[in-house]
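Hey Z.,

So I finally got round to the magnesium ion thing we talked about over coffee. Here's the setup:
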Amino acid sequence: MIELPKSVSDFLNEFHTKGFKIYIVGGAVRNLILGEEIDNWDFTTNARPEKIQDMFSDSFYNNDYGTVSIPKGNLIFEVTPFRKEDNYEDHRHPEKIEWAETVEEDLGRRDFTINAIAYDGKQVIDPFSGQKHLKDKLIVAVGDPDRRFREDALRLIRGIRFASQLGFMIEEKTRSSIEKNAKLITKISWERIRDEFFKILSSQHPSEGVLFLRNTGLLTFILPEVDICFTIPQKSPKRHHIYDVGTHLVMALKHCPSKDPITRFATLIHDVGKAKTFRRDDKTGLITFYNHEVVGEKLATQIADRFKLSNKDKDKLVKLVQFHQFTVSEIQTDKAVRRFIRNVGKEYLDDIIDLRFGDRIGSGAKPDSWRFDLFRKRLIEVQKQPFQIKDLKVNGEDVMKILKIKPGPKVGEILKSIFDKVVDGKIKNEKEPLLHYINIMK
Ligand code: ATP
Ligand code: MG
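And the result:
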């Protein structure tokens, strides 16, 4: 017996008392069985959309999927009548929606066995052994995998998405069918690929997800720039690298502490410029990748456009890749550190530090580095200093009032001299000491 929240059991009862069948399906059942949190409740029923709309006056109806949505507190319950599907002509969408008579038929059109379990509050309907596969941690296609992936090629990447989110393996027949049908992913729009890919990046196991994409051949179509990196060696005399570039990128992603998908994306692609800039010296065997971040910036821009990222996400992705090669040297000047901050932008500093952390650990470095820690502290310290005269904690008004002077170039000169003192670390950028300083100029 699985415990349900009251709002959900009440909801099921409303259908039952009217003589309808209704079942919880999809991710909600999966999470109920796994004992995980549920933020999204999907239901299937033998009631038709008009009937469901009659029952709930605040519902709204989506014609394309036959789904009726009913707001419940801060959640939305989505109810779709039992459906059957066939006639996939374009590997994308069923030709038309037809209602089915039984829940078993509805479950039969679903993608993976762990997503094809239904629960009505009393009974679990599980015709494809989804519960067993949840226990065995396996992604298994419902029915014949080849047929299912040909019907809808988005399922190719969805399978890998669920494996990354749940930490599951993909059952061998399903896996080899993904490999066999990988090319069909090109029939799917980039928006839909992006949404699944971002779920992989945001999941518990993003690096495993990328390796699944690579091992099934999907990466060739989704991110060829990363795929080719697995053929680029970087082990060379006097260099710290232990992996090829592709493996390094995956390891960097694995160790990137940020949960932000764009930061994780940037970490995954930060070295893609290395494929084009690879050079090996014939005599010394030394491998170099001069200006790889410049090429990387160009490729990141292309990738952002292909994935139809928003302008904001694109800006972030490109900047993180473009500036990932920053120095953390303790002998650089404050001015150099400030230039770095200006280039990357204050809002992305934590993200580029996270990228760099993943980069280091993903090259086989130890997690702690005094130099890296010192640089982080310095970023904070340097930001406490004003960057511009307008960041000073005093302004022209203060200068004119204390020194009893009129507006004019003199005010600017005095502010500039205060600014220089602060930049040189001679006075703190705080109101009291600055006012005191102006006072002694009287
Ligand atoms: P989550 O919402 O946590 O991402 P979910 O399993 O609920 O996971 P959804 O994309 O919301 O995933 O889909 C709900 C259910 O609809 C799935 O569990 C699956 O049964 C079915 N489904 C969704 N997309 C497809 C598809 N392309 N082919 C077949 N069945 C699908
Ligand atoms: Mg869902």
